[in-house]
Sequence to fold (621 residues):
Amino acid sequence: MGAITLKNVRKTFGETEVIPGVDLTIEDGEFVVFVGPSGCGKSTLLRLIAGLEDVTSGQILIDGRDVTGEAPARRGLAMVFQSYALYPHMSVRRNIAFPLKMAGMPQAEQEKRVARAAEILNLGPYLDRRPGQLSGGQRQRVAIGRAIVREPSAFLFDEPLSNLDAALRVNMRVEISELHNNLKTTMVYVTHDQVEAMTMADKIVVLRAGRIEQVGSPLDLYHKPVNQFVAGFIGSPNMNFLGGATAARRGAHVIGIRPEDWVISRTEGRVKGKVTVAEHLGSDTYLHITLEDGNHIVARSPGEFPVTVGEELFLTGAEGRIYKFDEQGLAV
Amino acid sequence: MATLHQRSLARLMVAPSVVLLFLWMIVPLGMTLWFSFQRYNLLMPGMEEFTGLGNYRYFLSDPGFWISLQNTLIMVGGILAITVIGGIAIAILIDQPIFGQGYVRILVIAPFFVMPTVSALVWKNMFMNPVNGLLGQVSRAFGAQPVDWLSQYPLFSIIVIVSWQWLPFATLIFLTSLQSLDSEQVEAAEMDGAGIWARFTNLTLPHMGRAITVVILIETIFLLSVFAEILVTTNGGPGYQTTTLTYLVYTQALLQFDVGGASAGGIIAVILANIVAFFLMRMIGKTLD
Fold:
C-alpha cells in the first residue's frame, strides 16, 4: 500500500538544475535510504515526493496513482522533519492528534489512535506536556507519533536524527528499524550518514549532484560499488584510493582498498609506511599510515594492535578485495 | 555576579541612575498630588489654600467626566481592534513575495513617521472636509450627500485618524513575528492536512500571541494620552463627543486655568491607567510563559 514510482522527475530552481532527471521505484514496505553528501539533492527529492516542492517535469506515482499535481495532504504520506516541527503551543496529545483533527475524525477515534501511538512510542507520561518541556529524543518520538497516527501509505524522514547526540542517535536508529519491522509500511529516509544508511536500509539510493549513482542493498553497495564515488562513500572509514604506478601495475587508473582489507605485518608486505596516528578503540585499531610514495592511507586492525607512532609497518592489500577503477572512475 | 562582593559593587554602580530615574518620576507625581489638594486657579493668584478632596469631588462630578471616560475607552478599544486585526492582515499580505516588495513595505510603514498634528490636519482638510475633502468629493461624484465626518461621526473619525497612524507600528511588529515562524512547522501542518485557515488559527495566530500582547500593551500606553489629533480636529467637540480624559484635564488646566482641578484629574487618569495596566499585565503573564 505504499509503492512509489518516480518517472524522469526533474527539478530546477530558476536556472539551477537540482535534479536533472530521476527514475526510481520504491516497492511497498521497503525501507529506502537516500544518501549522499550535502547538496546532492536528496532532501529535495524527498520534498518532491512529499509534495512540498512542485516537480519541474516528470511524474510521481503512488500505488500507480499519479499524484504529481496533488496537494501534500492528499498524497497519504507522513513526514518527520529534521527540526521535528512540533507545534510549540500544543500539548503532545494535541500535536499527535492534529492530523486526525484536520481530517475531521471523531473525538473517540482520535483518542484511541493517540493512545495507541503513545503506547508504541512510550510517550504515555508526556502526553500533557508541551514540546518545549521534552528532550530531543522525546520530541523526535512525538514527531514520529504524529506521523504514525495517520496510518499513511509511506513515511518520509528528512535527516531525523541529525539533531540528536551520538548515543541517542544509535538508540533511535534501532527504534525506527523496529518500528518499520512492526508496521511494515514503506519508509523513505534521507541522511548524509552512511552508517545510518547501511544499518537501516533495505535499499540504498546513493545520490550525487541530483543523479542516482547506484541503487542496491547495503551489502551490494559495499561489495560491488559501480564507481569510485560510491566506493568512497560507503564504508567507514573511507576506502583508500591509490593511483599512479601502484594502480598501473594492476592495470587500473585507481585502485581502492578498504581499511579492513589490509594485511598488516611487521616483517613483510608489498608497501611500507610509517604510522602517523593510531586510534585505539578497543574493538578495533585504526592506523593512519603515510606510505613511502607519499600516499596517506587508513588501515583497520581488529582488536588491539600495539604500535607506536613513527613505527614502520608493511601492508598488503588482501587479494580479491582490491577494487579497480578506470579514468572515468567507473569500476572495472 | 557571582560573589557577594561583586553584587554589592554592582548595586553601588547602578545606584546613581536608579536614584535619578526615581526622582524623575516622583517629583512630578508628588507635585501633581500636592496641587490636587490645593485650591489653585491661575486667575486668582495668591489665593491658594488646602481644600482636601474638593478638587476630586468637582472633577468627578463634572458633567464631562463620565462621558470622557467612556470616550477614552471606546477610542482606545476601537483603535486597538482596528490596528491589531488590520495589522495582522497587512502583515500577512506584505509578507507574500511580490514585485517591488521593499517599496511596498516602506510605503506601508510611512504613516508612522508623520507627526500626529500633521496627519490629523491632512485627514481633516483633505479627506474629511465635506466641501474640499476627497471623501466628500467621492460622495458627490456618486450624487450622494457628503458626510461631514468630524461633526456627524466625530469619535469614529478620531479613531480612524489615530488607527491610520498606528497601523504601521502594529504591522511592523506582526511582520517580524510572522517571519520568525518556522517554515518546517508550516510544511508539517500542510502535510497534516491543514488548509490555509486552519494553519492560520492553529499555527500563525498562536505563534503571534506574544507580538499581539506587546502591540496591545505599547499602544494602550500611548493611546490613553492621545491629544494632538483631538486638539487640531474637533477640540473635544461637538459638545463632549470627542473629549477624552486627557483632553478634559487639558481644558481644566489651560482653558479654565484651574490647576488644582486639573491635577486631581491627572491623578485620576493615573489611577485608571494603572487599573488598565494591571489587567494588561495579567494578560501578558498568560501568554509569556
Observations:
- Chain A has nine helices and 18 strands.
- Residues 238-325 of chain A form a domain with the OB fold (Dihydrolipoamide Acetyltransferase, E2P) fold (CATH 2.40.50.140).
- Chain A touches chain B through 23 residues (CB under 8 Å).
